[in-house]
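Appendix B. Chain record.
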Amino acid sequence: MSKIVKYVGLDVHKDSITIAIADEGRDGSVRLYGNIRNDREQLDKVMRKLISQRSELHCVYEALRIPDLPAPEEPGDRLRRCSSGADPQESRRPG
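Structure tokens predicted for this chain:
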């Protein structure tokens, strides 16, 4: 059986993460999954639940930083940082 592709959007705040999910395709549904605390265990729990549903996840997030999550190093890295209006090189510039 093939995996179902889901696009997961994470809007990260200091104390919380809002999660939205979109199904693959132009006609795929888009829905608010919910809010969780901004901690690694909560995020892992949600991702494991989605993966257990035979889902292939494509994740993006909008934030300054997710604690303990490495920033992408090279173009094409699997982890991508998305931020509206921000310079994509800004996160890689020294302090």
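Further analysis of this model is presented in Appendix C.
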